[in-house]
Amino acid sequence: xxxxxxxxxxxxxxAATRESIIDAAEALLERGGVDAVTxxxxxxxxxxxxxxxxxxxxxxxxxxxxxxERALAANRDYMDEMYARPGTPEERIVAAGAAYAQFAAExxxxxxxxxxxxxxxxxxxxxxxxxxxxxxxxxxxxxxxxAAGTMRADLDVxxxxxxxxxxxxxxxALSWRADRHRAAPDQLLALLAAIVAxxxxxx
Length: 203
Hints:
Elements: H1 9-32, H2 39-46, H3 50-56, H4 60-84, H5 89-106, H6 108-115, H7 121-148, H8 157-173, H9 186-200
Helix pairs in contact: 1-2, 1-4, 4-5, 4-6, 4-7, 5-6, 5-7, 5-9, 7-8, 8-9
């Protein structure tokens, strides 16, 4: 039995060019946010013609979607390890919250792209898919806590997971503000974790 032939040299070159275009767009996002990701800027940074971007990736919407896909993968890497680690359900939720905060601190523009996605149907659908996936993992940990008798039996775990996700996004978003309510999230996240723990524990 013979191995199937791999991609041709031309195919590898096309794939490499596509990756370099997405690399350039991702670098622009990290430096200046979504508004900085324009096709002329990507063209200049990747040192390719505009038509090459259209041929290898597509228009600006497609480029932003490709960058969002990378942000989704990065977010998943941060979170999945925490959900899989040993510990009580409460410890795993706290660890996952810390990982989410770390992702937001280390990759702020990727976080903003996911927390406040551009109004692009494909990007919105993919980001909603990730949110459903990650919130489902959080709901599963809450369900473990209910089954273990350490968390309230009356919790709607799916709704609680959504509320927790929204609460963390809200606290982390304070670092974007330009007014006096701008705040580093560390202490607020610790307070939120304490409030959450008190609210979901069996009394």
